[in-house]
Design a protein that fits this description.
By secondary structure, this protein is an all-alpha fold. It has helices at residues 2-117, 122-197. Helix 1 (2-117) runs antiparallel to helix 2.
Length: 198
């Protein structure tokens, strides 16, 4: 009886104590604490630091930098420079040239010359000069150059630079950041650590 009691008591006590101790302490401690700690730490570290840092900081930085740079560059430099400088320069130059040189020269010089010396053909010359030279030069050349330059500046430079470069850089950077950084870091590192830990 004593022998059995001691044997059973000591055996069961030691067995249960060691088993429960090993199970509860080591297994639960190691599994719950270390695993969850490492899992949560790595997960939070990957998510908070890598994802948020790379996504928010780099993406927003590149996005805002490129967006603002391209927008300001296109707007301030190309648009203002080309529109104000070239357009106004060509507009004023052509307008002043056509008006001052052609119109005033033809009108004042030829008209007055013909008017003073050739009154009988005044109407013919006047109508010819006005209808043909003035209207042709003013309407055709001015409007052609005006519309051509305006459409060229707007359609080619603005639309090409804005749509092509902006969309190309935006989509390229967005897709690159999303596909490479997000998918690579999230899928590869997360799944690797997740599978490795499991």
């Amino acid at each position: 009886f004593i022998y059995l009691f001691i044997y059973l008591f000591i055996y069961l006590f030691i067995y249960l104590f060691i088993y429960l101790f090993i199970y509860l302490f080591i297994y639960l401690f190691i599994y719950l604490f270390i695993y969850l700690f490492i899992y949560l730490f790595i997960y939070l570290f990957i998510y908070l630091f890598i994802y948020l840092f790379i996504y928010l900081f780099i993406y927003l930085f590149i996005y805002l930098f490129i967006y603002l740079f391209i927008y300001l560059f296109i707007y301030l430099f190309i648009y203002l420079f080309i529109y104000l400088f070239i357009y106004l320069f060509i507009y004023l130059f052509i307008y002043l040239f056509i008006y001052l040189f052609i119109y005033l020269f033809i009108y004042l010089f030829i008209y007055l010359f013909i008017y003073l010396f050739c009154c009988p053909i005044y109407l013919f010359i006047y109508l010819f000069i006005y209808l043909f030279i003035y209207l042709f030069i003013y309407l055709f050349i001015y409007l052609f150059i005006y519309l051509f330059i305006y459409l060229f500046i707007y359609l080619f430079i603005y639309l090409f630079i804005y749509l092509f470069i902006y969309l190309f850089i935006y989509l390229f950077i967005y897709l690159f950041i999303y596909l490479f950084i997000y998918l690579f870091i999230y899928l590869f590192i997360y799944l690797f650590i997740y599978l490795f830990i499991y």
